[in-house]
Amino acid sequence: MSALTAATEASVPKAAAAHLRIRQLGKRFGSNTVLRDLALSVEQGEFVSLLGPSGCGKTTLLRLIAGLMLPDTGTITIGDRDLTRTPPHKRNVGVVFQNYALFPHLTVAENVGFGLRNRKMAAAERKRRVAEALELVRMQEFAERSVTVLSGGQQQRIAVARAIVVEPAILLLDEPFSALDRKLRETMQIELRHILRNLGITSIFVTHDQDEALVMSDRIAVMNQGQIEHFGPPGDIYTNPKSLFVLEFVGQSTRLPGKVLQTITGRVEVETPLGHIRAPGSYLPGSRVVVAARPEAITLGEGPAGEFNTIKATLTDIVYLGAKTQLHFHGAAQDEAIQVDVARLPIGGLAPGAELSLRWRIADTMLFPAP
Fold first, then answer.
1. Which terminus of the chain has a smaller tally of CB atoms within 10 A, N or C?
2. Tens digits of per-residue pLDDT, 111-167?
3. Dihedral sign, CA of 211, 214, 216, 221?
4. What is the pLDDT of residue 176?
5. Radius of gyration for the alpha carbons in the chain, expressed in angstroms and rounded
6. Domains and CATH numbers, the chain
7. Distance from C-alpha of 29 to C-alpha of 34, rounded to nearest angstrom
């Protein structure tokens, strides 16, 4: 029984030891440093997203792991093998490219079995493995069709089947959903996560879409200027970002500049354009900082002073989004943008121009050094 068959019966447990280990990785293109002393450890069976803006180095890192380019410094180890200088075809790494890179002159089955043919696998075994892979992605009835007649979502499934049929040591995915419409993209995210977790394949996923990374990942590596600023579970990335960049890149937030007045028993009091705001932490008086809160943490009305920050702001817009409604506010100086996400809260009678009290828990207030 192959790993593909066994995967439909039970999930493969995750091992404690790191399966992919990257140390001091560096890459330059001329005078441009793309990666700088980057380190990353990924466990067996883990799904990790590389998240960041264009030019942050995430696709370069993926290509280095695949062997499609070589690093200037550092090492890449998969399992117990140092693959830093190993050619791509000897790494046992599967890749799903952004444009799928299917062969238009081959049938669906021939595309899926291409890697097995290159490995000189016997025809009967190759046919069986291809059938298993197509069944996993629910495309078995398309086996003899040309890939040119398939929809974008179907082509994406075939690209995934071709990558997993060789039972790779690690699977690399380079923004494979970018060409799909939103509804299909969301469906494929859940299906692919289910397939890969059942197979127990260690996967590295490149995306610039924060929602996509939050939905699919066991852990997320948020990259900026060739380095990883925060590596952790989605919940930790969102609720406890390690830097102002991570806060701004992952999710929406209300941010106010300020100056630290004092620190008392683990709480910092900050003077901001909208009044005094308290946050957990410890800073020297006079420090320039940024205080922040997520939109869903803010609600209407005042709260007990010992537990909540309360400010007054002017409502400027009401945006209905189905499951939630966004309320947009400005402070008195009209420079402080505040967003409140409201779910199942009566907002009837509210209109732009109303001055309202807003509150959020001191414990939900985030604090960062000013850039």
1. N
2. 999 988 888 888 999 999 999 999 988 899 999 999 999 988 889 889 999 999 999
3. positive
4. 84
5. 25
6. 3-92+168-248 (3.40.50.300), 252-369 (2.40.50.140)
7. 7
Distances (CA, A) of 160 to 1, 113, 217: 21, 12, 17
Residue 327, C-beta contacts closer than 8 angstroms, at least 6 positions apart = 315, 317, 318, 319, 339, 340, 341, 342, 347, 350
* Residue partners of 212: CB distance under 8 A and separation at least 6: 49, 177, 185, 189
- Identify the band that residue 332 occupies on the pLDDT scale cut at 50, 70 and 90: low
165-194 average pLDDT score: 87
Q: Tokens for 230? A: 């925060």
Beta strands in 32-116 (DSSP E): 32-43, 47-51, 73-78, 81-82, 93-96
- Does 348 have pLDDT greater than 90? no
pLDDT recorded at residue 335: 60
- Nearest alpha-carbon partner for 350 in 322, 333, 371, 325: 325
pLDDT in tens, 219-243: 999 999 999 999 999 999 999 999 9
Q: How far is CA 349 from CA 127, 346, 354, in A?
A: 65, 9, 10
Residue burial 163-187, b: 16+ Cβ < 10 Å; e: rest: bbbbbbbbbbbbbbbeebeeeebee
